[in-house]
Amino acid sequence: MTSFYVECGRCGATTEPAPRIALCRECGSPQLVRYPLSELAAHDLRPVWSARPAGMWRYQELLPLRCDEVPVTLGEGGTPLLRLRALGSELGLDLFLKDEGRNPTGSFKDRGVSTAVTRAVLDGVRSFVISSAGNAAAALAAYAARAGVPARVYIPSDTPSGVIRRCRAFGAEVIEVKGLITDCARLAAGHAEHTGAFDLSTLNEPYRIEGKKTMMLETVEALEWRPPDAMVYPTGGGTGLIGAWKVLQELRELGLVRGGTRMYAVQSAGCAPIVRAWSEGKAEAATWTRADTEAWGLRVPAARGDFLILRVLRDTTGGAIAVTDDDMRAGSSELGAREGINAIIEGGASLAAARALRRAGELADGELVVLFNTGNMLAY
Length: 380
Prior knowledge:
The chain is of the alpha/beta class and 380 residues long. It has helices at residues 37-40, 45-50, 85-91, 109-122, 135-147, 161-169, 181-195, 207-212, 214-222, 239-253, 273-279, 306-315, 325-339, 345-359; strands at 5-8, 14-15, 31-34, 81-83, 94-99, 128-131, 151-156, 173-177, 198-199, 230-234, 262-268, 319-323, 368-373. Strands 4-5-13-10-11-12 form a six-stranded mixed beta sheet, sandwiched between helices. The longest helix is centred in the middle third of the chain and has 15 residues, at 181-195. The radius of gyration is 19 Å and the shape is globular.
């Protein structure tokens, strides 16, 4: 049986989980799930996990699932960690890519949404709403359908039509908004307040981080329990970056890994609030005005977890970097033509950033570096 509680990521206030738990009641900030790691440390969980079927739910001791509870799942997780031999040789790195395009709806969003929908439904939620730049909306539509619960999604009207069609195909009610994800977020919050629907938007609740952290957990397991020297992560709302940092802390406390990973956030030059805040030495990121990028997952002018993202970068001695849309497209094309990987433009951003970080001396010769392809190009 897994017990857990939640802790505010800003003020540190702790509380027992409650139905429809969302933001900290003390300061309104995002919360993090905490587990009884001192109890779990008495056991070596590695052989337990490896004996279970592939997929993210094999790590149930570090997920918010209690005894006899059954997750809402479509088979998410268990994606490959691929060595990039040609590109790694060119860059002088031991280069890998975690390919999240293999998930059920084609993106890494499936991990977090599976976890959040699971916990919410078990806690009595009977309808969902979300604001999304694209892939999270499709994921919620699919997992809400799997759970037999209705969902409404607010999505920018200029999101690629294929994403919107997928949401409708999964049975969700789609509201197209003339604006950015921040405009969608306001409408989603209003709908939740008016109807009682549970708002699953990024970092509005603590459980999407828990699903996303399994990307790094799988990565470390595939590397025989060695954390990579560095990771390069396309960063919009930042749940995956925060999750990677969090799970490495948990694994170290459990005695399952040593050392850490420098974490680098990559954003679009047309929408880079985290990069700007990092370069200015700020602890929080001001809203980016006139956001403009075709990488829809990176078109996030204001991230609710900005202070956590920046803390991750400081704590891991990493950094933040912006790349152009042209460089992202080139990176996506290179991953396809040279490594056979079906990479979304945000995945191309991670390769473009790795090149720039290598030129700047941030990535040293021969280092083990992991890039993240967050979705399948066919999603768009």
